[in-house]
Design a protein that fits this description.
With 381 residues, the chain is of the alpha/beta class. It has helices spanning 2-27, 50-61, 65-70, 84-93, 106-123, 139-142, 158-175, 205-218, 256-260, 290-300, 323-330, 341-354, 356-375; strands spanning 73-74, 76-77, 98-101, 104-105, 129-132, 143-144, 179-180, 222-228, 243-246, 265-268, 271-274, 306-309, 335-336. It has a 7-stranded parallel sheet with strand order 2-3-5-7-8-10-12. The chain has a two-stranded parallel ribbon with strand order 1-13. It starts with a helix and ends in a 6-residue tail after the last helix.
Amino acid sequence: MKSSLITIFAATLLFQSCAQSVEKSKKNPIKEQPKVETTFELKDFLSENKELDEEVNLVFSQLDDTSIVAQLIMPAVGRLGQTKETIDQHIKDRVIGGVLMLNGTKDEFTSWIKDFEKNNKAKGNLPFLYSADAEPSLVNRKIAGSTPVKKANELSSIDEVRSVAETISKDLNDIGINYNFSPVVDMSPNKTVGFRSFGAVPANIIPWSDAFIQTTQQNNIIATAKHFPGHGLVSGDTHKALQMIDGEMKEIKNYPELITNGVLSIMVAHIAVQNNKEYSTDGLPSTCSEKIVTKLLKDSLGFKGLIVTDAMNMGGVVNVPNASSKAVAAGCDIVLMPLDAKKSHQELLKLYRTDKNFKAKVDASAKKIIRMKIVLGLLGK
């Protein structure tokens, strides 16, 4: 009897030791960056591709929960963003999955991205998505030293649009930026965004935006249609305060053709919707509304690409409690420029560990981001 008890006790200790070992292994960060065996192209992102699915799942399986949540958070670096030192610390803490290059020089952005990726490799982090507001109307101000181009509302032909997209894409590839938050597909009346779109002639918005998108993505850079569900017909500035669409969302018509033709990213604006039977946002910005992000953009319009918030430090959202987790719960994949990236990560991670439905949404977004990193060639051997 005594021998049996000793055997049972020993077996119990062994089981506990194994369980603790497994649990510990789940929480340990990866030591080396995961790599994929097969080469894919950017256009593969939206395709039915079993081999790509398997590679995504393999990379995902190597990440702990800290790294999974980190994929969804994208702070900015540069003037009006964080310091390089802050981003370096976020890399050490493993709390971000990408960076917006915001207001700096071409040379310093190139140098910073090389440093960030060196640090990511040393830490075993996944490579980053590097974004920029490289719109024709803003790129020369956002990235000093970039090749001069005309503003969007000054372009005179679809061929000129393609040429400008080529010029911008070459600069972005030289720097290491793989994600362009452009084009603006809003109508022209709003003075905050109107000069940044091709809306001077309304009939040009869809074909010219599509031309910019296709040229950008042919250069292995993600293009982004913005600002969903439409910023051109509201009167105010979402940088300063929440704006409102009253009734019909008239600019939704600008998106279906772009989605059908394969735009890979859409940015959601901090605009509320009222007096709309199906899509009123109950006072919340669209970024935090499941009706807009999931029901309208994903389900109704069938968009399967990356959904990114507009900057989360803007007046239209900054006063919403737990805005980062609300945006993810609504269906957004990337939380752009949260006020504090580390606190945003903590907010998402806490829910990730306690709420199964929220965890499922984060996992789905992280897999989309990993998929994009793979098709960009960031995880190749």
